[in-house]
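Write out this protein's structure.
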Amino acid sequence: MATRKDTLVRRASRVRRQVKAVANGRLRLSVHRSSKNIYAQVIDDVAGKTVASASTLDTDLRPSLKTGADTAAAAAVGKLLAERASKAGVKDVVFDRGAFIYHGRVKALAEAAREGGLNF
């Protein structure tokens, strides 16, 4: 019987494989959600480099947040990531939710990134 971690890893790899198949040269916006924080990166898979990143642990974002584990914090991370990605010249990305369902904090981050100027 598979453990919970095995199930999550399998689901994340399945989602990532599908995302890379439809990426068509676009960069990947990857999201990781823990119980206390949320992290997001814009990744260039061809070069193997992170173009932009943001999380609730960033020093310029941390003081303005009540906690790192709510939708308001996720929205702030999405907005900050979109700002940093646009400075790096990135407009079009493909969204990689990992093993997490598109709901709650993941959805709040994605919508804030869209409002910030990222297209996906």
